[in-house]
Amino acid sequence: MSEVHANIEALQTTLDDIASHAVDRIVCLGDIVGYNTRPRECIALLREAEALCVAGNHDRAVSGQITTETFSATAARAVAWTRKHLRDDEIAFLAGLPLKANIEGKLLAVHGALHLDAGCETARLDSDARRALSMAALISHPSGARICAYGHTRELAIYERRSGKTVLLPDDAIELRRDSYYLINPGAVGEPWGADRRASYMLLDLAQRTLSVQRVDYDVGVPLAATRKAGIAPRGRFLPGPLRSAIGKGLSAIRARKNIKRAAR
How many CA atoms lie within 13 A of 136 on its CB side? Predict the structure, then answer.
């Protein structure tokens, strides 16, 4: 799982669903905190579940290990709010999270990009070129692992490298080929990017060599109301991320044109 983002309603519902599958281990790909108002409870639940967690950029920012210079105004505001509402031991927990994890030589976990060391938690695998670099890093990794799980983009994806080609698989359930390499992104638990607001995660069975996407419904209105009350949520947060981004760019363009007209006068 990835992108919990302090959304306790989404995380609790997801963990309840996971419990019905009797998994051996939970892997969290970072961004436990940020955007929502229940960071303490989310940290506690993941620690109670003994989840193996790697650090996301929001976790690193809250613990003071990176700045928020490249964050959006909303994300930076949430980081500052979160830092004020966590105890010292909870901040220490976030600060102690590793950037990458090697799970039994079978699965590599990272928040952003496998091919980077410094800054791997902030890089996004959002282009063919960047995915190619991380796929190459997976293929050459000394562990021999053939699967790398990553997050950060908040978009579900299964990329398979086979016979010299990398393709995005359209299926929600696949059998893992022994001669292939995989980059997999489980999407988001607490802060989805697209129109589908359900929490998502993936079930990976290394013995049966299967991978499946799971989606869970929860009441998205509860965390949204809490973030608005706390002064974190921007206007239009209920809209899908791409639409919010497009509207923001449009408004910026309008403001820029108005400024040019004023200057021309």
Answer: 8
